[in-house]
User: Which sequence fits this backbone?
């Protein structure tokens, strides 16, 4: 199994792709995992030929074959600018299918209830989470993509009082990344 992760800090925090690979190895599969990530990046930036990460994504998709390519959007955008998110997923999914790979969407989670970002957006944790989920489900349905409900698993743990967030109320703790990695393993390994 060969997988490319495209995203930002929600992917690279705690090296989630390596945690995913370790989970797969526990089940007897050793995946080849690559990542193209940059802090705060939006999927639209990975489409740009003028962006170093965009060029890297296109080079990998041209030069190597993947089984799955995972897309993770900036953590607020699907809830605040759904159309931009859907457009970027559609364009990237076309490149992924041209590679022969299956597009996979990484559903992220709402910010912690005490997050300053939620205050600026006028949202609650539950409202943010629900808006993200709707946007990711629409993107998956529109593009024939697999959807990894990592955000749902993260949210369930958060509501049980488990320490899934980094102190910033946005990024995952190591435990939050482990939950995410396990959900990827469950979905991609069947």
Assistant:
């Amino acid at each position: 199994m060969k997988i490319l992760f495209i995203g930002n800090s929600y992917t690279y925090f705690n090296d989630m792709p390596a945690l995913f690979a370790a989970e797969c190895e526990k089940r007897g599969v050793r995946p080849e995992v690559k990542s193209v990530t940059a802090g705060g990046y939006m999927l639209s930036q990975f489409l740009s030929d003028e962006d170093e990460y965009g060029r890297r994504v296109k080079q990998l998709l041209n030069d190597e074959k993947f089984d799955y390519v995972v897309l993770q959007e900036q953590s607020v955008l699907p809830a605040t600018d759904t159309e931009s998110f859907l457009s970027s997923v559609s364009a990237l999914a076309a490149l992924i299918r041209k590679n022969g790979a299956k597009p996979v969407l990484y559903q992220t989670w709402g910010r912690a209830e005490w997050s300053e970002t939620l205050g600026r957006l006028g949202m609650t944790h539950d409202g943010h989470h629900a808006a993200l989920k709707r946007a990711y489900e629409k993107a998956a349905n529109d593009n024939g993509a697999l959807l990894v409900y990592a955000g749902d698993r993260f949210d369930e743990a958060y509501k049980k009082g488990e320490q899934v967030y980094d102190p910033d109320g946005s990024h995952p703790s190591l435990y939050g990344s482990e939950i995410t990695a396990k959900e990827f393993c469950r979905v991609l390994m069947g």
